[in-house]
Design brief:
Elements lengths: L1 H9 L5 H12 L24 H4 L2 H12 L4 H9 L33 H17 L10 H10 L7 H10 L8 E6 L9 E6 L8 E6 L5 E8 L7 E4 L2
Antiparallel strand pairs: 1-2, 1-5, 2-3, 3-4
Length: about 240
């Protein structure tokens, strides 16, 4: 998640100093949980309902912990405090709003708005939780489904500009990944298995080399370009 946050921040022209600040905030974004007991270290969906209000205070505890440790780290403290806030004010712990503007390196932090570092980290953290099953949902989502959910929450929950950049740089199907075609409107190969050959033209619609039919029986390798298939859905094989 830290690497993904830094990669995102680079797209907005951050300086090396700003990248270091953001990276530290990303690394310690959940540090406040250690102040609240072992139950708060569980995946979010496993936190008991009667502890939900307490759980939502972990960014505040992280802010206080960082202040007591090193008061000079102001940007990092605000990143920790704000990373669960939403653009429409529906987040926590303070109910701050965002302005959905690109969080560029020259944007100063306006009082009452979400810190720009936190707007970046919140997207990277949400994606990481969705694909690893450590957030509010008990199941792991496929990368494309996680991205689709984040984009659906763009502007309401997450900074719209950050989401747009994120959708361009996230690697949904790495070269060499083994996948199964779940839906397709182009070639009629639903259920077939393939290996990702190239995803440079469209990260969500890669070029595949098919190698097995839906029963797992080997077939003659066939290269297919799905970059123009609007209905393509793939499942990454474990």
């Amino acid at each position: 998640m830290v690497s993904l946050s830094v990669l995102l921040a680079r797209q907005f022209g951050y300086t090396n100093r700003q990248l270091r600040e953001l990276a530290l905030g990303a690394l310690l974004h959940a540090v406040g949980k250690i102040c609240l007991g072992d139950e708060m270290l569980l995946p979010e969906y496993m936190v008991p309902d009667d502890k939900a209000d307490l759980y939502r205070e972990y960014p505040t505890y992280g802010f206080i912990l960082m202040h007591n440790t090193n008061p000079a780290l102001k940007a990092e403290r605000l990143t920790i405090l704000h990373h669960r806030e939403w653009q429409d004010g529906g987040g926590w712990p303070q109910g701050l709003r965002g302005d959905n503007q690109p969080p560029t390196r020259t944007n100063s932090h306006d009082q009452g708005l979400i810190h720009r570092y936190a707007e970046i980290i919140s997207v990277a953290s949400a994606y990481d939780n969705l694909v690893n099953g450590t957030g509010e949902l008990p199941q792991r989502l496929q990368p494309a489904d996680a991205l689709a959910l984040i984009m659906a929450l763009s502007r309401k929950c997450f900074n719209q500009a950050v989401c747009q950049v994120f959708s361009r740089i996230v690697c949904l199907y790495p070269t060499g990944a083994m996948v199964q075609i779940q839906e397709s409107s182009s070639f009629g190969f639903e259920g077939y298995y393939g290996v990702v050959k190239d995803q440079s033209h469209d990260p969500a619609r890669p070029v595949l080399i098919l190698y097995a039919d839906p029963r797992g029986k080997r077939v003659r390798p066939k290269t297919l370009d799905f970059s123009h298939d609007p209905d393509l859905r793939l499942r990454i094989m474990a």
